[in-house]
Amino acid sequence: MAFRRLPTSRILEVERKFRSFAVPKLTQYGGLPHFKSLQKLPIRIIRDSYYDKSNLLSSAGVWIRKRDDRWEAKVKKGGSFTNSRFEELTHVDDISACIKRITGIDDREARNFGLDPIAIFSTTRETWIADDEFHIVLDTMDFGHQVGEVELQKVLAGEPTEHQKQNEVQLMDERVASFMETYAWAFSPGQPTGKLTAYFERERRKTT
């Protein structure tokens, strides 16, 4: 069941991907400088189904997924693949309006908003909260791929302008970059491969 309409707010998210940990085990005192704090959360198993229509949404920088029976839309607000900035939509009405604006499709949630499934997989997620606000995530997919992210979220009340959103995600991105530079001992260098990219590469290999 997706979330229904609540008092208006906007969720902004900035994430920077990393290939793997550079240490055998992530701990508060595993390198210098130490994390100010590090809390490990329970491991989660997540089932994701991604949807699109003739690549119209992904081409516009929008990803629609159903995560454990909850609909989510991630709308790109700049950045790159490794360094991503998003607005996250969790209300069905907002998701439907976003899909209609880009594709022209106006369909019901019960019919997957008129979209087609493009990827389905499960993820084992390990999560740590560092320095009380930065989420460090390591995802291992059921097809064997692994990728990590450092994430920072902020909730904006009301209806912020696009300029305000862009300013906020820029500041958030700078903070994530500074965090990863400070604790560079924790993260392996190298270009990470995202879960959807790895999934589609695997599917292509199966057909060749």
UniProtKB/TrEMBL annotation:
One of its GO terms (biological process) is thiamine metabolic process. Coiled coil: none annotated. InterPro entries: CYTH-like_dom_sf, THTPA, ThTPase_euk. GO terms for molecular function: magnesium ion binding; thiamine triphosphate phosphatase activity. Gene3D superfamilies: Hypothetical Protein Pfu-838710-001. PANTHER family: THIAMINE-TRIPHOSPHATASE. This is Uncharacterized protein. It comes from Hypocrea virens (strain Gv29-8 / FGSC 10586).
